[in-house]
Structure formats: C-alpha cells, structure tokens
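thought: user wants a sequence for this fold. calling inverse folding tool.
action: design(structure=
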C-alpha cells in the first residue's frame, strides 16, 4: 500500500436545473449520490476531502453529516463549475500533493476507478483524466500546479481549457460517460437499475 499524499475535491454545488431536482440527492440502493460519491473518495484514504456545496442547500449538506470531510461553500453556484473549482483551489493552496477531483452525477463511479487514476498519476507524474469514448473529463487526478491554475478559470468549462496544449494521460472508463443532466438521463438510469426508482 502506497502512503496517501492526495487530497480530494467533491464538486456538489450544482443546481441541477436541467434535471429539475438535486442530483446530489438521487439514491442508489437507498444512499444519496453525494454520500455514495464521498464514500468512494474516502476509501482512497486521502489526507483531506473537501466538498464544495451551495450555501443555500441544507438538504444536500445534511447528506454528508458525520463524514470526515470539510465543506466549502461556493457563493455563486449559478456561475458554473469553475466557481467551485476556484473555491477548492484557494482552500487547497497549501497542499503540495496531487488532488482527485470528482463530481456527483456519475452513478457508476466506484473506488476502483479512483484508485486507477491515482496509480496512473504515480507512474506518469502528471495530470490523469477519465476517458469515455473520445471525450474526457472528471474524475481526474491533477497536480498541485494544475489545481493552482483553477483560480483563474471562469464559466462552466472546468479544467479542460488547461489541457488543450498538452493532453493529459487517460484512464478509460466508458461507463462514466453517462451522467445525470436531464429527466431523460434519469429515466435511463432508473430503467437500468443505476438509480433507485
């Protein structure tokens, strides 16, 4: 077992406007997606887990009560994903190791994939992203230097614009290309047994 040196960020401040209900509160085997995601992250034994929330979503915050995490609040959750990344990057400014960045809308995410990202990072040394088909994104393992650049991001593009010049290493996980953005996505997930009815 390699000693953990990574921190982790769970991005959970989204409004789920297209879905019409908080995706963080959808359930898998009776457990909310948020709590399930945080549990998968905690199983990688990070030195710290920070969960980025919207300050006006107490029901979402209640889902992680009692877990060994810190919460950071995004004061402008409607401004896009980059706002949450900026909040987390500022909070982790003193962290010199790598960081896992995870969302809450991939119902098929498990600890095995997060461990694979971390292992690939140990081998290659740089950023490692999840590949799904030709696309890629989070979950990702990023270096401290990459995370520091997040303080200058804006909009909903996330970190991808930082990788345009030098594409990162990928760990393929096509199942994670399915995320929950719309009622149609939710209907598919329920029909396939990935989300509780």
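)
observation: tool returned 197 residues.
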């Amino acid at each position: 077992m390699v000693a953990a040196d990574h921190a982790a960020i769970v991005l959970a401040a989204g409004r789920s406007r297209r879905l019409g209900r908080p995706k963080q509160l959808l359930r898998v085997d009776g457990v909310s997606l948020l709590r399930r995601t945080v549990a998968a992250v905690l199983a990688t034994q990070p030195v710290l887990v920070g969960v980025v929330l919207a300050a006006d979503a107490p029901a979402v915050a209640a889902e992680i009560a009692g877990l060994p995490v810190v919460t950071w609040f995004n004061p402008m959750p409607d401004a896009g994903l980059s706002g949450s990344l900026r909040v987390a990057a500022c909070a982790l400014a003193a962290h010199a190791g790598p960081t896992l960045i995870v969302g809450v809308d991939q119902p098929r995410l498990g600890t095995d994939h997060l461990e694979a990202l971390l292992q690939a990072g140990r081998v290659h040394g740089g950023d490692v992203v999840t590949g799904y088909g030709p696309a890629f994104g989070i979950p990702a393992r990023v270096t401290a230097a990459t995370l520091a650049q997040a303080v200058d991001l804006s909009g909903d593009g996330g970190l991808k614009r930082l990788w345009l010049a030098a594409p990162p290493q990928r760990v393929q996980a096509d199942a994670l290309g399915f995320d929950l953005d719309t009622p149609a996505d939710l209907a598919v997930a329920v029909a396939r047994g990935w989300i509780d009815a």
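thought: summarizing for user.
answer: Here is the designed sequence. The beta strands are 7-11, 27-28, 31-32, 48-54, 70-74, 99-102, 128-132, 135-142, 169-172.
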